[in-house]
Structure formats: C-alpha cells, structure tokens
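Lab notebook: predicted structure, single chain.

Context: the supervisor wants predicted structures on file for every construct in the current expression panel, including those that have not yet been purified. This is the next one on the list. No modifications to the sequence; it matches the entry in the shared construct table.
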Amino acid sequence: MNKSLKEKGIDFSMRIGELVRYLRENGQGFPLGDRLLICSVNAGMCIRRGKTREAAEFVEEADYIIEMAVLAGYLTPHQDKHIRADCESLLKALNEKTGGQPK
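Prediction complete. Output recorded below exactly as produced.
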C-alpha cells in the first residue's frame, strides 16, 4: 500500500520524536534535539497545509541535524541509517510533488 504524502509526513514526525526521546532517555543530551523535533513537526504541518517546498526545507534541516549527531558521536552511523533513508524518501516525494529536483 502506498502511503499518502500526509501519512509520510506524520510517520516522519513520529519517527523523529522517537529518536529525540531515545537521545534524551539515554542521557546523551543531544543539544540540537529540540530543534530536530521542531523541524519534524514543522515539516509535517507544512505537508498538511500543502506547502511542500517549505516542508522539504525542514526535512533537509532535520537530515543535517541527524548527520551532525553522528559526527558528534551522539548516534552511530548504523543508528542513523534508516532515519536518514526516511529523510531521503520524503524529500524525493516532496520534490516530485513540487516538480523540483532532489538534492
């Protein structure tokens, strides 16, 4: 079953929420966790409102923050593999919707 863009946005926001909770509960205190959560919620809200270009910007920012978490040692490359794949997949869907090119 293919999920709608809105469903993908909700799934993305929830998955990021779980990641932020993981970082908090494991005592790692990733300093950009709150910003990561805000990006994911904003992406989902923009998708809901049909603002796909803005949503793509928030997804790109979330992806960048996750990359920083790996580089800073808060996540391992293995831990970020699936969530970054989600970012890439959602960006692809958003870019198809807007007629833009994936980055």
